[in-house]
Design brief:
- By secondary structure, this protein is an alpha+beta fold.
- It is built from 5 helices and 2 strands; from the N terminus they run αααββαα.
- Strands 1-2 form a two-stranded antiparallel sheet.
- A hairpin with a 5-residue loop joins β1 (54-60) and β2.
- The radius of gyration is 21 Å and the shape is elongated.
- It starts with a helix and ends with a helix.
């Protein structure tokens, strides 16, 4: 019985070994690092945990009306839109910082954000 259990454990480990990320740092860990510090202000500073809209600042316009600068939730954005926003010309958004991330970094960051659900 012990031998059968040991063999089952060994076979299970072999089968799942190919699915593990055995690199020095996993894609999730790399994405988490980029979320906290992507060469500049971290995504977390404006987007928090990424699950809900965050008010970044409040101000009053010239007429005295209260206005908000908000960061949208980002954990349900599709990859095409995510990549587009991070690569956008800054004339499109005067709030979102410019990040010069590689495709691999964008994929790791997106992978991490998707796991925040």
């Amino acid at each position: 019985m012990k031998l059968a259990s040991l063999l089952l454990l060994l076979i299970t480990n072999i089968l799942y070994a190919t699915q593990d990320d055995n690199s020095f740092i996993t894609k999730f860990e790399y994405g988490a690092m980029l979320y906290e510090n992507p060469r500049g202000i971290g995504c977390n500073k404006c987007h928090g945990n990424g699950k809900k809209e965050v008010i970044i600042a409040k101000y009053r316009n010239k007429k005295g009306a209260l206005k908000y600068i908000k960061a949208p939730p980002i954990n349900n954005v599709n990859f095409k839109d995510f990549k587009s926003k991070l690569r956008a010309d800054k004339t499109e958004s005067l709030v979102m910082p410019t990040y010069f991330l590689t495709d691999e970094e964008l994929e790791s960051l997106y992978f991490y954000i998707q796991k925040l659900k």
